[in-house]
Amino acid sequence: MATLFFVLLLSLLTTCSSVSNENSMNADEHRALLDLVGSLLADSSWTELHPQPCTDTPWPGIQCESDISDADLLHVTSIHIGPDLLSPPPCKSFASLSPASFLHFPFLKTFSLFSCFLYPNSVSLPPSLFTSTPALERLVLNGNPGLSGEIPSSVSSLQRLRVLSLPQNNFHGVIPREIGRLRALQQLDLSYNHLSGEIPEEIGRISSLSILDFSSNQLRGKLPASIGSLQSLEKIDLGFNHLSGRVPPELGELKKLVLLDFSHNNLSGPLPEELSGLKQLQYLIMENNPFNISIPFFLSSLKKLTVIGLSGCGLMGPIPPYFASLESLTALSLDNNSLNGTVPDSLDLLSNLGELNLSQNQLSGEIGFSVEFVRRLGKRLDLRGNKDLCAKPNDKYEEASVRLEAAACLGPGIDNGGKRGVVEDGDGRISSSLDGNEVENCCYFGVSSLWTLGFQGIAIVVALLV
Ligand SMILES: *[C@@H]1O[C@H](CO)[C@@H](O)[C@H](O)[C@H]1NC(C)=O
Ligand SMILES: *[C@@H]1O[C@H](CO)[C@@H](O)[C@H](O)[C@H]1NC(C)=O
Ligand SMILES: *[C@@H]1O[C@H](CO)[C@@H](O)[C@H](O)[C@H]1NC(C)=O
Ligand SMILES: *[C@@H]1O[C@H](CO)[C@@H](O)[C@H](O)[C@H]1NC(C)=O
Ligand SMILES: *[C@@H]1O[C@H](CO)[C@@H](O)[C@H](O)[C@H]1NC(C)=O
To answer: Whole-model pTM?
Structure first.
């Protein structure tokens, strides 16, 4: 019986070989490939023009590899349609995936489609994609607004999956708990969909995960503490969701984390001091969460921080001077909070800083930054909306061509004179663009009380716009 089968198989292979020159494909696999590609591409002549996609008429989106035991037998291992291809063939307006699409791709390692299902015709993921492709390592479906439905729990059958990247589609429903069984998974990107419900606790079992991106969905509930077990995690982006509750202290165990983005959620404070364990952290993006806390001390121990985004976090109290020790900082955003006290002059020692936004707070006192610093940052230095903040009248600030809207420091109480870094030019005259001629030559140090009354508290453009 077995012999008979073998003979039959052999004769089948021989038949195929006679079609193409040397190499051959399994007939089912061959037909399945032509069917699949035919259901996707607008050009209906493609399958006729490329009858042997693995051999005689190769196509850049298709890759084939020889069978382990038979070098002449070829298997489809990669199907890809994307803009990176040289003259990518466009998908048809009603491209589809039939329920049986993947039944004959036992060796498929990569399936990726970029911007293929563009029209809202409700293509969903066929079950065969999860039950019949045991070799699948990369499933990438990106920018397909016509791709909807749920992410099925059978996704966990893909035990070799390393990359599950499904951003910018129209998926609904919850993230299946079974996703925690994908032990080989390194990248999980479900961003820009309409996923709801909570982040499953089981996420913490995907021990090889290095990238986790669920941003721009409608996820609710708490951040699972189990995320702290993801020891390989380098990037976590959960921004633009409705997550609430506190940030679990376990997250401080993410020793390799480089990027943490929890912005635009409903997370509350306090932030755990354990986050001081994030020694590799470079990007801390938390803006627009109602933390309502003072600036946490643990930031001072994260020496690799390059970008801090804590705008709109309900921050209160002073800006601690330790920011000056975070030497890698390139951008610091603390705007739209309730910070008070003075602006630490020492921030101007941060030689890599190119962006500083402290606007819309309750900061007060004199701006003591060096002219060099003010000049370097230009418009990316924003101190507006702090009504008790004042700038020492100074031509050099003007020369720096910088927009620094702050009242001029007038009156004896505010002008403490000779602050470090501000180049004094004698008369300290400022030029103002406020109402043109009216205020020409208006402002000097030690100006009369009349001027003090007239201008204190009014935003004066200390230096002109470029
Ligand atoms: C935000 O979180 C608080 C509790 O921390 C909760 O009372 C409130 O309902 C949440 N708001 C939204 C819009 O989810
Ligand atoms: C945080 O402060 C804002 C504004 O003061 C307030 O509306 C909100 O209820 C506070 N949230 C929490 C969780 O304390
Ligand atoms: C300021 O922060 C609040 C939350 O604290 C947010 O609702 C608002 O949109 C923010 N404003 C700007 C201009 O970003
Ligand atoms: C800052 O605000 C707090 C109340 O939120 C107040 O107790 C403190 O005195 C203020 N500090 C300064 C320097 O104004
Ligand atoms: C600084 O923050 C404010 C308020 O959040 C925002 O309106 C402004 O555009 C920001 N400035 C810069 C230069 O990005």
So the answer is: 0.84
